Sequence to fold (128 residues):
Amino acid sequence: EVVDLFGVEVDPDCLCGRCIKCNTWDWCLALRSEVQANPAMRAQVNENTLNAYEEFWVCQGCGKVFWEGSMFEKAISHYRSFIPQESGQDSVGDAPESPSRVQPQAAKYREMEEQGCSQQRIRAQKVR
Fold:
């Protein structure tokens, strides 16, 4: 309703782009081994979560650690409901596959980073 009333444009490349704690837009991809090796990051992730995911996102503003679990999937599904469906697309609200069912693609995202892609572009690639 607000989106329609105020003519807000929702950019699919920027879904979940800001930190919920400090509102920063600066993210760093961290592998499980990096989280395990850093006491400040390790303290934020319980053992089951650490074992379930290979990739984590660390806010460069406040250091909060995030992973793309069920809450992330629900948020993406919710935000995608605001994006007008383009012709030829299937349901826009479909959530991406759970990270536990997807092979880690850290190398792909690190390569994108080396090629100069912005963190928001890399993140957008992950949610598609």
User: Anything to note?
Assistant: The radius of gyration is 16 Å.
